[in-house]
Amino acid sequence: MNDAPMSDALSFDNRFVRALPSDPLTTNARRQVPRASYSKVLPTPVAAPKLVAYSQEVAHLLAMDPAFVTSPEFAQTFGGNHVLKGMDPYAMNYAGHQFGHWAGQLGDGRAINLGELKGMDGQQWTLQLKGAGPTPYSRTADGRAVLRSSIREFLCSEAMYHLGVPTTRALSLVVTGDSVVRDMFYDGRAKEEPGAIVCRVAPSFLRFGNFQVHAARQEFDILKQLMDFSIENDFPSLLSSTNSSTPPIYLRWFQEICDRTADLMVHWMRVGFVHGVMNTDNMSILGLTIDYGPYGWIDDYDLDWTPNTTDAESRRYIFGNQAGVAGWNLAQLARAIMPVVNDAESLGAILQTYSSRFKQGHEQMMGAKLGLSSVQSETDSLLFKKLEELLSTYETDMTLFFRLLGKVNPVSALEEQWSILQDSQYGAQAGEKKDWMEWLKGWNARVMQDPVGKLELPRRGLMDATNPKYVLRNYLAQEAIEKAHEGDYAMIGELLEVMHRPYDEQPEFERYFAKRPDWARDKAGCSMLSCSS
Ligand code: AMP
Ligand code: MG
What is the domain extent for residue 115? Predict the structure, then answer.
């Protein structure tokens, strides 16, 4: 019998460590780290790591044997007590603008990259623990994460993936057996909470801030090295598609980042996701959704909504502001890479294309939500604008409305159409029926002119593939958290299962296709979250 550890089958690589300059100091003490892209650091052991949930798909993607995932070795490793052969753990150095202000060095204060694995898809995937203990970048904090925020990150990463939204993924959720002290609303009522660690997985965890840190310190040689690294490893197609008329590589790279970011913003608007903390250190170079903190899902459609209580006053990161703020963040990235690119005019021109790509993508997406295969700018934007107005005036559930609209027959009686949509309203208000029927009339006429929209099955196909039936509503994650605090982790698995096929009708989970219950309207964890996690 072969009794080598099951993890021996995994072959780790560490390209980032090999290619970029390391912090010469190896003590794990908080400090400024000049002239280095990372610091080597080991996870800090925990009392009693226990696996409470994992993503079978991510494990499969990483070619991990299911028997390994459920073995004690896995919980020890992904709880931070054990380092597998070939791993070379490190924390990344980055800076950032937080809430619009330059914050200097931030870095992975509680994230530790373990190493990379080649996936079944041929892609290289970095495995990263979040909450694995302090690093040189922890500043005044403890390097840990609480169970509630870890459940939210674990579930939402996988939900977003299945919704077709670019995102970092999550392999595992391990409870540590240690408690972590948090003052959830910064009001002096700190309390002990169970600690947890999520293993996040992505082709790269590079953020805008990784480039900003070297730019701010005028370490232009390292800045260039990091840009070259990103291009070679994460955008290799840019290297192969050159001819004499293509712009220089760094411009094409920046263009690609702008394009991906624009597309990501369109997706967030499509599914009703509010990130909550779009600081430049939380913006992925790959255009992935990264760092699930005080994020939230739109229940009643409200462009002014943010779940983040830390942003309640300045409202920088509200739902309707996300594309604009991403553009601002891209401008900060452009400034950071300028010393290497040396072409302000071209960078400026690329930034302009970000806005137009978002605008176009957003219109196309709104059209698809309404069953239109293409949009006619002028007239359709009026239809969309009026819709947005009604959705917010009449407190309408975003997910329910669009999904139910797919069921509406545009040649049926208006009364009948309205009765289908009525379920998406949070309360009856004077005038709503008349206003909605008026809008429906316009939609009926428009959709019947569209080659896809006029045919029932293709229209429904387009709408159902654009408008999810299930999203990870804030109150659902909160219910799973409350149960987990009582030691019952079953709902995490159930939500993972529902969110596995968010566009499919799943009659056994019909209860998850429902408006936010009244108790969740203003409840902490549902509509109010802070950065304390
Ligand atoms: P965030 O805005 O929450 O993504 O984090 C901003 C910065 O704070 C990053 O440098 C994080 O690594 C760091 N950070 C957040 N929470 C902790 C923590 N509990 N311990 C150490 N660093 C943290
Ligand atoms: Mg962050």
Answer: 6-205
- Whose tokens are 């947890």? That residue is 196
What is the spatial distance between Cα 85 and Cα 10, in angstroms, rounded to a whole number?
Answer: 9
State the DSSP code for 517.
P
Side chain identity at residue 49, one-letter code: P
How confident is the model at residue 4, as a pLDDT?
A: 80
CB of 397 shorter than 6 A to ligand 1? no
Structure tokens given for 390: 């009604």
> For the segment 25-37, what is each residue's pLDDT rounded down to a tens digit?
999 999 999 999 9
Q: Which amino acid is at 532?
A: S
State the Cα–Cα distance between residues 407 and 503, nearest whole angstrom. 14
Spatial neighbors of 73 by CB under 8 A, at least 6 apart, are: 5, 6, 7, 82
- Model's pTM, two decimal places? 0.97
In total, how many domains does the chain have?
A: 2
Q: Decide if 291 is catalytic.
A: no
| Ligand 1 atom at minimal distance to the Cα of residue 180 | 19
Neighbours of 247 (CB within 10 A): 15
Q: Whose CA is nearest to atom 10 of ligand 1?
A: 106
Q: How many Å lie between the centroid of ligand 2 and the Cα of residue 225?
A: 23
Model confidence at 294: pLDDT above 80? yes
**Ligand 1 atom closest to the CA of 107, numbered from 1:** 10
How many CB atoms lie under 10 A from the CB of residue 445?
A: 11
Catalytic member of 281, 300, 302, 311: 281
Asked if 329 contacts 264 with a C-beta cutoff of 8 angstroms, the reply is no
Any domain includes 19: yes
Whether 294 maps to a domain, the answer reads: no
CA distance 280 to 99: 9
- Which of 95, 107, 333, 356 minimizes the C-alpha distance to 230? 333
Tell which of 205, 228, 263 closes a domain.
205
Amino acid letter for position 184:
M
Whether residue 427 is contained in a domain is answered as yes
Per-residue pLDDT reduced to its tens digit, 131-145? 999 999 999 999 999
The residue from 466, 488, 518 where one domain ends is 466
Residue 282 covered by a domain: no
Whether 270 is in the pocket of ligand 1, judged by its Cβ within 6 Å, is no
For 45, half-sphere exposure in the C-beta direction (CA atoms, 13 angstrom radius) is: 6
Distance 268 CA to ligand 2 centre (A): 18
Q: Which atom of ligand 1 is nearest to the CA of 145?
A: 19
Q: Which helix (H) or strand (E) is 365 found in, with range?
A: helix 344-369
Q: Where are the alpha helices (DSSP H) in 4-133?
A: 15-19, 56-61, 66-69, 72-78
Q: How far apart are the CA of 109 and the centre of ligand 1, in A?
A: 5
Name the residue with tokens 């590079």: 206
pLDDT in tens, 219-235: 999 999 999 999 999 99
Cα(334)–Cα(346) distance, integer angstroms: 10
Distance (Å, whole) CA 315 – CA 320: 10
The ligand placed nearest to the CA atom of residue 103 is: 1
